[in-house]
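Example for tutorial group B:
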C-alpha cells in the first residue's frame, strides 16, 4: 500500500522550517536574469497552489533575505553542488541522460536549480520545478529511490518514472502534484481548512514502545 510515509523527508522539512523561522512564512527570490516572464509566472503559480493547499505562505523578497531561491541555468554542473546536503547527491536529477534539476541546502537558504535554455514552460519544466519544490518542502523520492519500480509520476511527482506507453510510443506523463503529494505537504505544513485532502492512504506509521503490564 502506498502512503504519505513513502514520500516524507523529515530532515528537509526540519531544515526549511528552521530557515523560515518556524512561522510557516517562506521568503523566496529568484535570479531574474535567468528567468522569462512565463517562468516567473509558473513559479508564482506553483507557490500559490501550495499556499492554497497548506498552512504555508510565500512572500517574494530580496535575495539577501530569502529562504528559498530559484535559479534557472543552461547546465547543472559540479559548481551547483551542495554545501550542507543535496537531495540528488553527486548525480543531480537525471532525466533523458541529463541533469535537469537540483535542490541544494545551503547555510542560509535552499537553492533550486532547473536546467533551462529557453523562454517557454513545457511539461518537463513544470514537472522538474514541482519535484524540486517538493524536496525543499520536505518530500522525498518514493521510499528513498527516485526510480522505485512501484511508483510512477501518476502516484507522485517525486518519482523519476515519468514515461509511459501510449499507442506504442513512449510518452512523457505529467500529472502535477497528485493527491499523495498534497496529503504529504499538508502533513508537513498543516492543511488550509478549506482544502483538506484526505484519503485511505494518509497514514504515518509510528513505532512507539509500550510499557509491559
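The residue assignment follows.
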Amino acid at each position: 500500500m502506498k502512503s504519505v510515509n513513502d514520500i516524507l523527508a523529515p530532515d528537509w522539512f526540519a531544515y526549511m522550517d528552521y530557515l523560515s523561522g518556524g512561522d510557516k512564512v517562506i521568503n523566496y527570490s529568484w535570479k531574474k536574469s535567468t528567468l522569462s516572464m512565463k517562468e516567473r509566472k509558473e513559479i508564482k503559480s506553483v507557490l500559490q497552489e501550495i499556499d492554497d493547499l497548506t498552512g504555508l505562505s510565500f512572500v517574494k523578497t530580496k535575495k539577501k533575505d530569502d529562504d528559498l531561491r530559484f535559479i534557472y541555468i543552461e547546465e547543472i554542473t559540479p559548481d551547483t553542488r551542495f554545501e550542507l546536503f543535496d537531495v540528488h547527491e553527486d548525480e543531480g536529477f537525471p532525466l533523458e541522460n541529463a541533469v535537469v534539476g537540483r535542490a541544494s541546502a545551503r547555510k542560509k537558504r535552499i537553492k533550486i536549480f532547473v536546467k533551462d535554455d529557453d523562454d517557454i514552460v513545457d511539461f518537463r519544466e513544470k514537472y522538474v520545478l514541482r519535484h524540486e519544490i517538493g524536496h525543499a518542502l520536505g518530500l522525498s523520492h518514493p521510499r528513498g529511490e527516485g526510480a522505485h519500480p512501484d511508483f510512477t509520476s501518476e502516484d507522485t511527482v517525486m518519482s523519476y518514472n515519468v514515461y509511459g506507453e501510449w499507442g506504442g510510443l513512449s510518452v512523457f506523463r505529467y500529472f502535477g502534484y497528485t493527491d499523495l503529494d498534497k496529503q504529504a505537504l499538508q502533513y508537513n505544513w498543516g492543511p488550509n481548512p478549506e482544502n483538506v485532502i484526505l484519503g485511505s492512504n494518509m497514514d504515518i506509521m509510528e513505532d512507539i514502545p509500550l510499557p509491559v503490564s
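The first strand starts at residue 25 and ends at 30. Compare this with the pattern of hydrophobic and polar residues in the output above.
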